[in-house]
Amino acid sequence: MSKIVVDVDPAEVGMDAKRLERVSSHFQRYVDDGRLPGFSVLVSRGNKVVFADARGMADIASNHPMELDTIVRIYSMTKPITSVAAMILFERGLFELTDPVYKFIPSFKDVKVFQRGSSQSPALVPAQEPMRIWHLLTHTAGLTYGFHYAHPVDQMYRSAGFEWGAPEGFDLAQCCDAWAGLPLLFEPGSEWNYSVATDVLGRVVEVVAGKSLEEFFQEEILVPLGMSDTGFFVNSGDRDRVASLYTKSPYDGALLRIGSMAEVPTETPRYLSGGGGLLSTLYDYHRFTQMLLNRGELDGFRVLGSRSVDYMTMNHLPGDQDLETFGRPIFAESSYKGVGFGLGFAVVRDVAASKTFASMGEYSWGGAASTAFWVDPKEELTVVFLTQLIPSSTYPIRTQLAQLVYQSLVD
């Protein structure tokens, strides 16, 4: 039975119930015409669940429905959790944001920067600026992802076995050493590029805390927040609660179930990816967003100090620039215009420039399988949307979700 309870009439918190139903009816069309297998969504305001619904299928072949407690791969929605973990240690004075990464991972001591050439014959120069902790938190470290297909270094990542995951048998420490041996796209701090930076940050957490990322998550975040269905693996008894992963056929647009990439571990994996390794549920991630909305506290347990959350969710890009001007032109689920980046979150800086409904200071992120969340402190609003369609840039789900949620506000 789902733990989610809609506990307030939308009218009591300035929302229109009939308008909220548009969220479901709109994305039901995505299910009906085969664009999505299924989805679940939760909207809260003022720490009250206002709306929750699940539609479609978790697995099409077996006719297994999407439920409010279905477990999904949240991929990069792992990143904010890892960022919070790092800031817990920062609050304890165990490192500085300006500390060089090599202080904790020595292989990052003498990194090289790609200057020109190809993936087979690159011209490299020594980095002038050390990679620092704040570079990892803001994706300005010069690292990349193999799946970008935008730069010769992306190809070098793929050639080394890093496209969607890690080479067989690698643990997080080995991955970090491998990435340190590959060139950076640019001098740390000079540009923004979405990357394995949060995985490296996860390794920093392990080194500083003296325990695995899994243990730290459990002790400091997941157990205190009651996120009992979130982890790097699922118990064998919960395997049938996990949604299947799909992609769009390049031939006819039909949904294709993905096999090997979608395997779900039933025990702790060797590679603990702080950038994309967690599975979770609608309820659990809602708990995480409520902690953030409350500036670090939930149900009497404080994960972070209030000023820490404020600091994480301000724009940290130099000169208050947005991702459009400071970032690399890679695929995106929504416009980078008017959106900056904090310590683990995208942050809205200019609502008009973003060309969709939002609030100044709203912060968010999403996952590769089209999952998304945002927290809007101004409106005391949080939204979590889960599905399992990869890549997340297939349809404009996130912008449409914002339109549909914000139009339901009537106060």
From TrEMBL:
Cross-referenced SUPFAM superfamilies: beta-lactamase/transpeptidase-like (SSF56601)
Pfam name, any one: Beta-lactamase
Transmembrane stretches, start-end: none
The organism's place on the tree of life at top rank: Bacteria
Residue stretches making up the Beta-lactamase-related domain: 24-392
Protein name as it appears in the record: CubicO group peptidase, beta-lactamase class C family
